[in-house]
Design brief:
about 35% helix, binds 3,4-dihydroxybenzoic acid, TIM Barrel, eight-stranded parallel beta sheet
Length: about 325
C-alpha cells in the first residue's frame, strides 16, 4: 500500500492533494462539488468583511498553458463562510475545512479571524494580499505591512493558521519574509499565489484578455510551476519543517506533485487545473502520484520529501 496522507498543522489529510483558495469555491454548491471530489480538504474562497461582486468581466481567461485572472475577491462575506463551514462539517465530517481570510484592512482581518475561532473550520489560510484588489499593493512584497498584520491576527486567533504568499524572485526577499514569519505562530506557508500583474494580449484584436487594470492580472498554471517550485524549495530549506510549506502553481499531474514534494512540500494545492479539468483532477493527480512513487519504490511521502538531490558527486 502506498500512503500519500499528510498532516498540516497536525490535522490529518487522507491525501496530500486538495484545492487552492480561489477557483470555483465561492458558493455552497461549488464547495459541495469539492467536498464530493477527491480533494482531501475543502478550501473556501478568500473572504472579506462584506460581500463583494469583484471586478468587471471579463476577469478570467484560460490560456494555452495556464490562466490569467483579476477576479477582485468576489465572495459572499465571511459570515456566509462561517455558515457554510457548519453545513459542510455536518455533511462531510471527515473532510478538513480550510477558511481563507483576505480582509481589506487590519481591523477587518482581526474581526474575521476572531469570528472563525468559534466555528468547525480546521485550518485558516491567511491571504493578506490578492494581486487584484484595485488600488492595493501586494502585502507579501512589503515585510513591514506583513509584520503588522501577522502581529494583529496572531493575537486573536485560536485556530492553527498559515499564510499564502506571492512568489519571490530574489533570494534577499526570501530571508526578509522568513524573518517576519518566524516571529509569529505561523504553522505553514502556501507557495505560491499567482504571479501578479501579468499581461496577456490578443494580437488580432490588439486588446488584453481581461478588463480590470488595463488587462493586468495574476498568472497561474504551467507558466508559474518553476517559480513555485523554487519558492517551495528555498522556504523549505529556511524553515526545515518547523513551518510547513504547501506547494501550489501549475500542478496538473502526479509527477508535478512529486516534484513539489521533492522540493519540500508537505501538501499540494490545485487551482487552474481544477478549473480547466474539473473535479476529477484531484483523484487523477493522487493516482498518478501513487503510480510514480511505486515506480520509484517509495511507500510514503517522507521517503522523498525535501530530498531533492544535487548535481555534485
Ligand atoms: C483574488 C486573486 C488572488 O490571487 C488572491 O490571492 C485572492 C483573490 C481575486 O482576484 O479574487
Amino acid at each position: 500500500m502506498i500512503d500519500i496522507s499528510t498532516k498540516i498543522t497536525g490535522i490529518k489529510l487522507d491525501t496530500c492533494v486538495f484545492n487552492t483558495a480561489g477557483p470555483a469555491d465561492v458558493t455552497l454548491e461549488e464547495l459541495e462539488v469539492i467536498a464530493k471530489s477527491g480533494s482531501s480538504a475543502i478550501t473556501m474562497k478568500s473572504c472579506t468583511l462584506e460581500p463583494r461582486n469583484g471586478n468587471p468581466e471579463p476577469r478570467y481567461a484560460d490560456l494555452e498553458y495556464g490562466s490569467i485572472n483579476s477576479m477582485g475577491l468576489p465572495n459572499l462575506g465571511y459570515k456566509a463562510y462561517i455558515k457554510f463551514s457548519k453545513i459542510l462539517k455536518k455533511k462531510y465530517p471527515k473532510k478538513p475545512i480550510v477558511a481563507s481570510i483576505s480582509g481589506l484592512t487590519l481591523e477587518d482581518n482581526v474581526v474575521i479571524f476572531k469570528a472563525f475561532n468559534d466555528t468547525p473550520v480546521d485550518i485558516i489560510e491567511f491571504n493578506p494580499g490578492s494581486p487584484n484588489t484595485i488600488g492595493k499593493p501586494i502585502v507579501g512584497y512589503d515585510p513591514q505591512d506583513l509584520d503588522r498584520l501577522l502581529d494583529a491576527v496572531s493575537k486573536v486567533t485560536k485556530k492553527p493558521y498559515g499564510v499564502k504568499l506571492p512568489p519571490y524572485f530574489d533570494l534577499v526577499h526570501y530571508e526578509q519574509i522568513a524573518n517576519v514569519i518566524k516571529r509569529y505562530p505561523v504553522k505553514f506557508i502556501t507557495c505560491v499565489n499567482s504571479i501578479g500583474n501579468g499581461l496577456v494580449i490578443n494580437p488580432y484584436t490588439e486588446k488584453p484578455f481581461i478588463k480590470p487594470k488595463g488587462g493586468l492580472g495574476g498568472i497561474g498554471g504551467k507558466y508559474i510551476k518553476f517559480a513555485a517550485l523554487a519558492n517551495v524549495k528555498v522556504f523549505s530549506d529556511i524553515f526545515k519543517g518547523k513551518i510547513q510549506v504547501i506547494g501550489v502553481g501549475g500542478i496538473y499531474s502526479g509527477i508535478d506533485a512529486f516534484e513539489f514534494i521533492l522540493a519540500g512540500a508537505f501538501a499540494v494545492q490545485i487551482g487552474t487545473a481544477f478549473l480547466q479539468k474539473g473535479p476529477g483532477i484531484f483523484k487523477k493527480v493522487q493516482e498518478e502520484l501513487k503510480d510514480f512513487m511505486a515506480l520509484k519504490g517509495y511507500k510514503k511521502l517522507s521517503d522523498f520529501r525535501g530530498k531533492l538531490k544535487t548535481l555534485d558527486k
